[in-house]
Structures are given as C-alpha cells and as structure tokens.
Amino acid sequence: MSDDYLTHLRTVQARGFYANFTLTMVAVGIHLFMALYGLSVFLETPGPQRKGRKRYIAASFVITVLSALSASLDMANYFQVLFGSTSPSNWRKLMAISFMEGWKRLVGNTAFGLVIMIGDTLLVYRCYIVCVEYWWVTILPMLTSLSALVLFLKPLYLPNADTATYEASASTFLTVATSILVTSFITFRLLRARQTVAKLLPTSDARLYTGAIAILIESAAPLTVFGIIVAILQEIVGPRGNHSPGFYVSVYLFQALFYSFCALSPHMIIFRVTTGRSFTKFPTPQDGGLSNPIQFAHQTAESSFLQSTLNREFGRSLGPDTERGLNASVDYSTRTQTSIIDTEQEKQNNGEDIKKAE
Asked: What is the Cα 156 distance to its own chain's centre?
C-alpha cells in the first residue's frame, strides 16, 4: 500500500472511532431519559400498581450510571489520543497503546462488562418469566451469557496478545448466541400466547402486550439483528484484515449499534415495565400478572401519570365555579352510567324471574 492510501485509511478509521463514541454518548442520553421518565411515572403511580416494579427502577439507574461511566471514560481516553496525535500513523500507535494499558480503559470496559451482565441477566430472567412452564430452556442462554462475560473480562485482567482477538470474537459470538436464543424463545412464546392473552384482556390491551412492537422489544430483536451483522463483519475483518475505508466505517457503525443495544434492549424492557406497558409476571388464566391491574376503562401507569399532570394544570387555570361545573358533569356522567347498568341488571333479573315462573 502507498503512504497516501495508508494516511487516508488511518484518517477514516479515526473518524469512524469518533463516530462510534459519539453514538455511544447519544445512547447514554436515551438511557438517562428512560431512567428519569420511568421514575417519574413510578412515583405518580398508586401504591398497589407499584408492586414488582422497584427492582426494575433500580436496574434502570444502575444501567444508566454504568453506561455513562463507560462512555465518558472511553470518550476521555480517545480525546487524549487525538490530542496527542501528530499524524494518522501516530494516531494508530497511540490507539494501540491505549488499548493495552491505562486505568480509563480498564475501568470503562469493566463497567461495560457489568452492563452486559445485567442486560443478559434481565433478558434470561424475562425469558424465564415468559417460558416459566418450560423453565429449563433458560439454562442454555444462561451458560452462553456467563461464558461471554468471562471472555469479555479476561483480556482486561489476564492479557495475552496472541489470543486477545480470538477471545473478543468468541465473546461477541456468545453474546449474539444468547440474544438469538432469548429472542427465539420469547417470540415463539408470545406468538403462542396471543389467544390466551386475548381472552384475558380487551383487544387494545392484548395488542399492548403481544403486538408487533411489544414482541420486538420484549425479545430484544434489535440486539440480535445488529449482533449477527457485527459477528459476520468481525469474522471478515480477521486479526490482520486489509479492507477498504468504507468497510471499516461499516464495522465501526454496526459495532456502535450492537454495543449500544446491549444496554438499550434490556433498558427498553425495563422502561415498558416501569411505565405499566409490560408484565412483571406473564398473564395466565389463573393470574393476570400485569404490571398494572386488569380493569375496565384500562389505563397504563404512564397514561395515569399524564392524566394527573393535566388535572393539576387544569386545576391551576380553572376557577372554582368552572371546577365545580366539571365535577358536576363528571358526577352526572357517573350517575348516568350507573343507572344504565342498574337498568340492564334489572332487566336481566326480570327475565330470570319470568323463566322461573314459566
């Protein structure tokens, strides 16, 4: 390769790394939004509906803090590399040194390893909840998850230049295998359970728990898709691959998406639970087990939160007379509905009396 081509290639790689870290910081912003919004909805939710959600709130903030710590240290480390680089080739040398040593890299990767562990544990746990009747199917994804974590952390504490690349590839493949297994089990179970859930809930609520979007999020499908792409690209690159600049840009982009969704996919599940849009226990004919109770005029915790906020705003802007008028309207509507129900019940009772008389 000519010197000009190598200079261009190193420049593209430097920009690719920068885009990778920038996308990771965007993901941190999404984590922060989901954690704070989920907490605000949780605090506005009535006490009985909070049951089973506290551990999800705690996991949400743990994932957010660890993701922010890892991304911040990676960005700070990369800034020092860029600041100290005198040329594209020098940038390559400094990047190699930063990958092999430095407390920022050690702490940042350890924090991200913990994020992966929490995320995989949550996915396996949700798989167990959904497939509780066949709990033994979670054994295999549990083993692949633990193996991926060990291979991810081993190069940090027991570095070996000869095996580091293969250990990283194996860790990625095992993480992808875990997501594929969990996605397959949860998707299959939710599709099979559509009829059962439809009998337990109204149509709109059944769609909330077994609709297309719900299945995509609950099964961590984006993580699986990006993981498969990254595994293929990583295998093509190899330890000493020579490829076009565009190919390297694709690798860095999909790596950023994959590692971002290692934390985002489980956090999106947590977000659905904390806002009352998912279950803490899979609904069965014996027990609805949703994170918000099954009732008529059903509202999610999120909609209840928004409604209470609107009520407060209207209470501030409306005068006492207007408020009394609104309350009177609500009381009238309630009495009307009650009278209709009583009338229907009376008709039903009269019908039963006529049948008995006959």
From this structure: 26
